[in-house]
Amino acid sequence: MQHRIIRRINPEIERVHFFKPSRMERYIVSCYAAEDGGHFRAHRDNTTSGTAHRRFAVSINLNSEFAGGEVSFPEYGPRSYKAPAGGAVVFSCPLLHAVSKVTEGRRFAFLPFLYDEEAAKVREANNSNLGEGVGAYRA
């Protein structure tokens, strides 16, 4: 996944936003399930000491057999986005966004964050604020 993001997403971010991602955080797969009312309320991805370094969020759908689960940006209107399986919604971390309730099936998504060397310094500086049990981070 990292190689594909570097090859396909990073050049687009650089072309459109004049920003060159060099680091990726959080290799997790999330599951939004209809039986649990899976959704994510409106939020921003860089508002804490532990997340201030994040610059771009990537939401890659790993399947298409679900209803609902669209990504939206409430400050910019009611439109929502549902990438096909293997497709991504990529956005700047300060944007307010939400994931609507999955109404049928399960949505599996790979959800990393991209940042650069300057932001890595922010992450290192903020590491001491994250509490006990958080391992050291070196830019």
What can you tell me about this protein's structure?
It is a single chain. By secondary structure, this protein is of the alpha+beta class. It has a single domain, classed as q2cbj1_9rhob like domain (Jelly Rolls, Sandwich), CATH 2.60.120. It contains two helices and eleven strands. Strands 1, 2, 4, 5, 8, 10 and 11 form a seven-stranded antiparallel β-sheet that branches. Strands 3-9-6-7 form a four-stranded antiparallel β-sheet, with no helix packed on it. A hairpin with a 7-residue loop joins β6 and β7. The model has no long low-confidence stretch (mean pLDDT 94).
Give me a quick take on this structure.
The protein is an alpha+beta fold and 139 residues long.
Mean pLDDT: 94
Q: What is the chain-wise order of helices and strands?
A: HEEEEEEEEEEEH
State the shape: globular
**Which architecture would the CATH scheme give at its second level?**
Sandwich
CATH topology: Jelly Rolls
The structural domain count equals 1
Q: Structural class of the helix and strand makeup?
A: alpha+beta
- Percentage beta strand: 25-35%
What labels describe this entry?
7-stranded antiparallel beta sheet, Jelly Rolls, 4-stranded antiparallel beta sheet, single chain, 139 residues, alpha+beta, 32% strand, 2 helices
Show the helix and strand layout.
Layout (H helix, E strand, L loop, with lengths): L1 H16 L5 E3 L3 E5 L6 E4 L12 E6 L4 E3 L2 E2 L7 E2 L6 E5 L4 E3 L2 E9 L2 E3 L1 H10 L13
Antiparallel strand pairs: 1-11, 2-10, 3-9, 4-8, 4-10, 4-11, 5-10, 6-7, 6-9
